[in-house]
Design a protein that fits this description.
Elements (H helix, E strand, L loop, with lengths): L2 H17 L15 H12 L1 H16 L20 H20 L5 H28 L4 H8 L3 H21 L9
């Protein structure tokens, strides 16, 4: 792995942490945060492996106790909270987003990155988050699924932001879109 790759991984891990400074909305057992935007961007911009590594670095810093979650929360205990499924799903979501970016290389960047963010950052993330919320949040699967519907509008905004950001960066600095190289 090159020095450039390590810097990119560290940058996106830091971006996810910085997005934790955006105030969270507590609407139930799992807050609405901006941090999944960073997960989507890591996968879309860095590709599957580097994107997942960026998120794993963020999770390592979280597990070590740094207050990098929205609202200044940190520590290993958050993996056993109602948010735990989402946290565990973060690296898989970034990997999936990066993978979709790679296999849709013939599509324009706006379309490809929107598709990648929707599949990785929403569908895959919910596939981990909803069962985790049910298991760790003492809910039925149906209750967790119903609660997760609260996240959909915000996540669709994050998908659109990811696509616009990826397209804008690719125009100005094409080499920053590692997922396409």
């Amino acid at each position: 792995m090159t020095d450039r790759s390590l810097v990119q991984i560290a940058f996106y891990a830091a971006l996810i942490a910085v997005l934790g400074l955006v105030p969270k909305f507590d609407l139930g057992p799992v807050p609405v945060t901006a941090q999944s935007l960073g997960v989507m961007l890591a996968g879309v911009m860095l590709g599957p492996v580097r994107g997942a590594l960026a998120v794993l670095l963020f999770l390592l810093v979280l597990a070590l106790g740094a207050p990098v979650l929205s609202g200044g929360r940190g520590g290993f205990a958050w993996f056993y909270s109602a948010s735990g499924g989402f946290l565990i799903g973060f690296p898989v979501a970034a990997f999936a987003a990066g993978f979709v970016m790679r296999i849709t290389g013939r599509l324009n960047i706006l379309v490809s990155s929107a598709l990648a963010a929707a599949i990785g950052g929403v569908l895959v993330l919910y596939a981990f988050g909803i069962p985790g919320m049910a298991l760790l949040g003492n809910m039925t699967f149906g209750q967790a699924f119903s609660f997760a519907l609260i996240f959909v509008p915000g996540d669709l905004i994050k998908v659109a932001l990811t696509a616009v950001i990826a397209q804008t960066i690719a125009r100005g600095l094409p080499s920053a879109l590692v997922s396409r190289s």
